[in-house]
Amino acid sequence: QLQLVESGGGKVQAGDSLKLSCAGSGDNFGTYAMGWFRQAPGKEREFVAMITYNSVISHYADSVKGRFTILRDNANNMGYLHMDNVEPEDSAVYYCASHFVASYYDPSSYQYWGQGTQVTVSA
Question: DSSP readout, 81-123?
Fold first, then answer.
């Protein structure tokens, strides 16, 4: 089994930058793709970004493309989401996930999830 713990969320202003971290524990972190999802109050969980196990391929939601960057450091069992030029619409609980089946953009396809970290962006 794989355990994931997110950190780095907080209260920021529009235009600010912040970095979210995802700490993995277990023997298979570096063999699984990982992704970031977010969920705002009253909304469904939505795809943000995904990166393959070896960082060769990454995908982003159109809403964050060019602003967010997904990274991973398998030697330290860490994943990251670098967020630049944040907007109020980015406010949500951000979740790290790993090991999807079939669809990287579908939250129901992922087996492992962290507890989430809150990001709040004021205008």
Answer: EEE-S--GGG-EEEEEEEEESS-TT-GGGEEEE---EEEEEE-
Take residue 20 and report the two structure tokens written for it.
């979210």
Asked whether 117 and 20 are in contact (CB, 8 A), the reply is: yes
Cα(12)–Cα(95) distance, rounded to whole angstroms? 18
Between the two ends of the chain, the Cα-to-Cα distance in Å is 40
- Per-residue pLDDT tens for 67-99? 999 999 999 999 999 999 999 999 999 999 999
Per-residue pLDDT band at 2 (split at 50, 70, 90): very high
Contact between residue 93 and residue 120 where contact means Cβ atoms under 8 Å apart: no
User: By C-alpha distance, which of 45, 18, 2, 10 is closest to 117?
Assistant: 10
Contact of 26 with 2, CB cutoff 8 Å: yes
